[in-house]
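Protein entry
_____________
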Amino acid sequence: MAPLAAPFSFQELAEAGGEGLAPLEYFSTSDGAGIAFRRYVPERPRVVLVFLHGGGAHSGLGYQFLGNGLKERHAAAVYTPDMRGHGASAGPRGDAPSVERLWQDCADFLKRIRQWHPGLPLVLGGHSAGAGLALNVSAWKRRPPVDGFAFLSPEFGFRSRTARAGRVEFAEVRLPAFVVNAMSGGLLWGHFPAVRFQLPSEILEAYPELVTAYSVHCANAVTPSAPQKQWAALTGKIGVWIGAEDELLNASAVARFAQTPPAREAQVQIVEGHKHLSILVEAASLIGPWLDELR
């Protein structure tokens, strides 16, 4: 499989600049792993957003635009963790002890944020595969309650039927590994690097912290197994934003998915002129007014 013909919208992120990146902090999960995160918190926050990064990425790759913008213009406290095995967090790159371990990490972090901001509305959000992880966590029986979900360029997996037709594939998937893992009840090949991201060498050189492969465990953790059913079960306030020129996703298909029966009271916006990554630059202006309604 050939690498991507174009480097997504990394160029737009580079042109927007990297200023304002909050310093890394750490918290310990229930199994003692060190998870890195960044915080963007105003003096008197009125709402809280925990926002999960996209596949192979980390909290320092464009998410400062969201954090700073919401902090400065919408009195929102924003926390952007590095998923286990990503960025500055503990764990083998692109792997996890189990599928549910990544969900538990998210639950542990949400509980910590509730302790820091008692009484404030709490929203769980995610970009790209981070949105898929958030949707999986939403359906997990041990998830702490949240007040809403914010999905940006949401990658809900092949079962959601939202992929852009004719796209150059972002990843090479080794299906036999998933088959063996499923047939063994998750006991075999969970750590096998079954998804390899097809990123150009110039992007990997410019962004050396990018994760280049996902294990079966990690891929399953961020890929909704029954997206329509999980979506229908969501509760609370829901927002979805997708770039009209997204390189991976069909914006109209994403909008249809978000409005499928049973009818959702979701705010859905197709953002003209934006791609899968470039939408991060404008994310605060998109999500901010929606968050204001939660106060």
Remarks:
- The chain has one domain: 10-292.
- DSSP finds ten helices and eleven strands in the chain.
- Residues 10-292 form a domain with the Rossmann fold fold (CATH 3.40.50.1820).
- Residues 22 and 288 are 19 Å apart (CA to CA).
